[in-house]
């Protein structure tokens, strides 16, 4: 029998996990210099679009449970990087935004990360991004099939 197929989920999961952990470790090395956690970076990245986001959307984007996100956002508010406002369209909901200080911090942090992020050869970054987006969309749309 030939070697394991690359289509076996366990092989793909191993590669994805290894790449994610190595990327997170690399990113955290850069973030540590600015006292920023990976979770905070994810929150700041989302809020950097300037549109304001509901806490539910922020939790999903940061891959955090709501209680953990609340504590993190409280810390970012204490650091004057984020502020909360009542949603003018739904007064029961809160929108999170970057403060002017948060915008400045994000631009500097993003520049440092981009400068030190390893780049694949021409076109491979976009190819990888496209394939990962396609995989995520496929997995999101298809429920796991029960084992026979």
In short:
This protein is mainly alpha-helical. The protein contains six helices and three strands; from the N terminus they run ααβααββαα.
* Strands ordered across the widest β-sheet: 1-3-2
Main CATH class of one domain: Mainly Alpha
Number of helices: 6
CATH superfamily of one domain: Winged helix-like DNA-binding domain superfamily/Winged helix DNA-binding domain
How do the helices and strands line up, and which of them pair or pack?
Elements: H1 9-32, H2 38-47, E1 53-54, H3 55-62, H4 66-78, E2 82-87, E3 90-98, H5 100-116, H6 124-141
Antiparallel strand pairs: 1-3, 2-3
Helix pairs in contact: 2-3
Pfam families: MarR_2
Organism: Streptomyces olivochromogenes
Keywords: DNA-binding, Transcription, Transcription regulation
């Amino acid at each position: 029998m030939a070697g394991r197929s690359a289509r076996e989920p366990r092989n793909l999961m191993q590669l994805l996990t290894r790449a994610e952990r190595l990327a997170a470790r690399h990113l955290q090395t850069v973030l540590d210099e600015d006292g920023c956690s990976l979770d905070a970076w994810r929150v700041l990245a989302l809020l950097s679009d300037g549109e304001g986001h509901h806490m539910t959307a922020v939790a999903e984007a940061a891959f955090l449970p709501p209680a953990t996100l609340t504590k993190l956002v409280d810390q970012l508010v204490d650091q004057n990087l984020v502020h909360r406002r009542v949603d003018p369209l739904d007064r029961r909901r809160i929108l999170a935004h970057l403060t002017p200080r948060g915008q400045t911090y994000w631009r500097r942090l993003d520049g440092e990360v981009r400068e030190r992020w390893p780049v694949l050869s021409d076109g491979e970054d976009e190819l990888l991004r496209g394939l990962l987006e396609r995989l995520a969309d496929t997995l999101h749309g298809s429920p796991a099939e029960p084992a026979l």
